Amino acid sequence: MQAYRDLFVIAKPDTYSTFTTQAEQDQAIAFLTDRTGPHARHRAFLCSLIGWDGNVLAERVRRMMEGADFPLPTDRTPAAQKRHAQAVETLRARWLHLKNTPSKRAPPASAVGAARAA
């Protein structure tokens, strides 16, 4: 899955590089971890096509973000293992940042929605 691969690449702030941008990596994190909303629905649909439960996938990715082991890269060289460990550390720091940043979503449009949000 492209979203999983995007977790481990070097994220660059500009959109003209050959690397994944920070916005693309953030979207990959949201796609793989959101509990509700469009990313969660799309993940659930795509996973259902291959017989997976998208919610189980998201829970496993969230556990890895919180400290459980990520699968090791297939390249077992020391350099690859070091790059993987650094990528995991960077990814977890970004996950923490995103979790602790207030949502920029629009407030609920109805009074009922506003009451539920309060």
What is the strand and helix layout of this fold?
Blueprint: H1 2-7, E1 11-12, E2 20-21, H2 22-33, H3 38-49, H4 54-65, H5 78-99, H6 111-117
Parallel strand pairs: 1-2
Key structural traits:
globular; two-stranded parallel sheet
What is this entry, summarized?
This protein is mostly helical.
How does this model look, in words?
The chain is mainly α. The protein has one domain. The chain is 60% helix and 3% strand. The chain contains six helices and two strands; from the N terminus they run H-E-E-H-H-H-H-H. The protein has helices at 2-7, 22-33, 38-49, 54-65, 78-99, 111-117; strands at residues 11-12, 20-21. The protein has a two-stranded parallel ribbon. The chain is globular and about 35 Å long. The relative contact order is 0.10.
Q: How large is the share of residues in beta strands?
A: under 5%
| Total strands | 2
**Overall residue-averaged pLDDT value:** 83
Distance between the first and last residues' Cα: 37 Å
> How are the strands ordered across the major sheet?
1-2
Uncertain stretches: 105-118
Helix content: 55-70%
Structural class of the secondary structure composition?
A: mainly alpha
